[in-house]
């Protein structure tokens, strides 16, 4: 019996967990960028969101 199937299962579970966590963080930051009470917080949240999704400006 090999450990490869168990290892692949563990890696897949870790990948799914990390993806869901990252998606949750991006969702919270996106909501903050819209719903924050002060313009400074909205601006900071938009900057953080740009960093998280690596949005690059062309040109």
Automatic annotation (TrEMBL):
Instruction: List keywords of the entry alphabetically.
Output: Membrane, Transmembrane, Transmembrane helix
Q: Any stretches that span the bilayer, and where are they?
A: 12-36
Superkingdom of source = Bacteria
What is the designated name of this protein?
Answer: Uncharacterized protein
- What species is this protein from? Streptomyces corynorhini
């Amino acid at each position: 019996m090999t450990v490869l199937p168990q290892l692949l299962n563990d890696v897949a579970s870790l990948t799914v967990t990390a993806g869901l966590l990252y998606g949750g963080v991006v969702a919270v930051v996106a909501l903050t960028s819209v719903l924050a009470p002060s313009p400074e917080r909205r601006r900071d949240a938009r900057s953080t969101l740009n960093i998280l999704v690596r949005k690059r400006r062309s040109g």
